[in-house]
Amino acid sequence: MHKQLSDLINRNVTGANAVAFLAADKKNDSSITVEASHIFKVVNFLKNNSENSWNSLHCISGVDYMDHMEVCYMLTNYDPNNNKGVLILKAKLTDRVNPNIDSIVNLFLAANFQEREVYDMFGIKFNNHPDLRRILCPDDWEGWPLRKDYVAQKYYQGIEVYPDNKMNMEDREYIVRQEMIKKAQAAKAQ
């Protein structure tokens, strides 16, 4: 299914450069990667193509791979006569300083809060989103908590974020390692 669908996308959305990635078992975790700059056109095509309509958005998530970021979309077709299952659609973002991609809120209203969550956790901006602001962290929180290079601020509004007496040592060691990695990366960049 994924190979045929990626070919169909490429025939109908110029510049999408859709590529199918098949899982080893050919059933689970197979996906299609498309150009991030064409995500709105691709999702619009997938939703509104009468013979191949993906009519439900399950979720949008972000992934940080250190050298790039991805936005992943899970779409489903609920037509009982044409059960295709779940489609994982991915878009790769190479700009870690200002990662951005077009919003699909105009296609799926469910994307509204999901895009806000990805923005709040990864700092990925969704162009043309009607209300892009933090949804999980306070508006004045520093950084993007699910990025691999994230180091939490020591204090927030006078409250210690990770007080020693409330930390388990495994978490504490992880945080210390992350701070060391960030310092090493900063030193290497200079």
How are the SSEs placed, and which strands pair?
Layout lengths: L1 H11 L6 E3 L9 E5 L3 H10 L7 E9 L4 E8 L9 E8 L6 E3 L8 H12 L2 E3 L27 E2 L2 E2 L8 H21 L1
Parallel strand pairs: 2-5, 6-7
Antiparallel strand pairs: 1-2, 3-4, 4-5, 8-9
Describe the overall structure.
The protein is α/β, with parallel strands linked by helices and 190 residues long. The protein has two domains: 2-135, Beta Polymerase, domain 2, CATH 3.30.460; 151-190. It has four helices and nine strands; from the N terminus they run αββαββββαβββα. The relative contact order is 0.10.
Brief account:
By secondary structure, the protein is α/β, with parallel strands linked by helices. It is built from 4 helices and 9 strands, in the order αββαββββαβββα.
DSSP E strands, number: 9
Q: What's the number of structural domains?
A: 2
CATH superfamily of the largest domain: NADH:ubiquinone oxidoreductase Nqo5 subunit
Number of helices: 4
What portion of the residues fall into strands of 2 or more residues? 15-25%
> What structural class results from the helix and strand content?
alpha/beta
Helical amount: 25-40%
The assigned CATH architecture of the largest domain is 2-Layer Sandwich
Assigned CATH class of the largest domain:
Alpha Beta
- Main pleated-sheet profile: 5 strands, mixed
Mean pLDDT: 89
**What is the overall shape?**
elongated
Query: What strand line-up does the widest sheet have?
Result: 1-2-5-4-3
For this structure, the CATH topology of the largest domain is: Beta Polymerase, domain 2
Report the span from N to C terminus: 48 Å
**Low-pLDDT ranges:** none
What is the chain-wise order of helices and strands? HEEHEEEEHEEEH
Radius of gyration, in Å, reads 19 Å
Oligomer: single chain
